[in-house]
Give the backbone structure.
Amino acid sequence: MDTFIYLLLETLIVGLMILGLHASKKHFGIGLLYIFLGTMQFFQTILSGNVYNLYFDVFLFSPGSTLIFISTLFAVLLIFRNESIIKVRSVIYGIILSNIILVFLSYISLEQILSDNFSRNTTFLAEIFNFDIRLFLTGIILLYLDMILIMFVFRYLESKFSKNYFLQFIGASVVTAVLDSVLFYSINFYSELNYSEMMIGNIAGKVLVCFILSALFAFYFVINPEKDNKRKALTIKDIIMIINFTTSGKR
């Protein structure tokens, strides 16, 4: 039970930070939220390879990486729901770019660690900065597709259930999270003996975080009706414009 309490607390902290930074954009701009999401990508990388917990004596998954992955998708949804096309485009490609730069800097740091005998904690640092490039490329491609997919699903649910905020968030996030886990583990670990256990544990962790964040985000919009989206909802055509660099994206 302690592990679940820690996950719940961690999820609430990250979720409140995303909502708080977005709510304060009139005073500080949207850039603070972008910076927060970018810095969290490094935290996700460290946790995904080092920290795992067993939940309810059944599901094993990395709490930090699972949380940060899902919270990133929720931040994209929040910006998609309330901002212009150009801002949605900025956050998507900013997250992708931050992940790519992170890997390049990590490889350089790894070479610096191994180049002489003056660095401290070299074994520990080498494990942190040593990425499996195949897993990274698969993850970054799926993350990009996930961010596009979740907007399509969210837009559909928003058009069908305009006032049911919880259903909008939980539906879009769970569909995307489950599909991501199935594809990621099937591509990279299908031949492993514990393939099913890893995939099911990852799905369970993501769905759990989706439920918590969906409740939090829905509650936020219920008690803050003035913060609700007052612009015309982005259409499927608008979503396509987000990934089309030939358009300005101004709206």
About this structure: The chain has a mean pLDDT of 84. The chain is about 75% helix and 0% strand. The first strand starts at residue 53 and ends at 55.
